[in-house]
């Protein structure tokens, strides 16, 4: 839908009106036949039709193009009233800057920022409303430290709230202790498995060393026996030499 033509100051050229909604073009597109439309209007039209609503020439979404620059400039220079005119805003802006003004307009109706409040209030009156809103929150004046809504003042009980908070903290602490306990047990099990594995490796290494030592002792005994035999052979040879 386009901009309501009643909002505009002065004459609006017929060529700047949407051929479908007959309001001033908003986010305009142009067909090859040079008829212009609001983007939302022409897209909605082409869902059920395949031609221009003005001259019935065949058109497709892919054939739509932005408005000619000179027409776009004419459109942007149009002057119109703020949409909050009925609430008291007297601002008149160019079409090019109207969106920026309306986003910041003091007469805009905006929702209260307090959760649960459904009041729509003018932006300029928001601070005053927040000061008295029944859904506003504040810290308990009795010193318990809780944030309460004004609507809950009569039901707020510091002792009950603190007892509930204490129970929650106790439950949370128990959960954390259990988690720490499980984590510690898991770590101990992991370390225990690691130590058992290391012990097994060391035991295997010890057995291997024993086996090597046994082989070495056997080799030493063999060498000693060979040495005795060699000595005996030398002695025998010496005796034979003396006899000769």
UniProtKB/TrEMBL annotation:
Keywords: Coiled coil, Ligase, Metal-binding, Zinc, Zinc-finger. GO terms for biological process: regulation of canonical NF-kappaB signal transduction. SUPFAM superfamilies: RING/U-box, TRAF domain-like. A zinc finger (TRAF-type) spans 101-144. SMART domains: RING. The keyword Zinc applies. Residues 101-144 form the TRAF-type domain. Residues 18-56 form the RING-type domain. GO terms for molecular function: ligase activity; zinc ion binding. It holds the Pfam family zf-C3HC4_2. The keyword Manganese does not apply. Residues 192-243 form a coiled coil. PANTHER family: RECEPTOR-ASSOCIATED FACTOR, PUTATIVE-RELATED, TNF RECEPTOR ASSOCIATED FACTOR. This is RNF41 ligase. It comes from Cardinalis cardinalis (Northern cardinal).
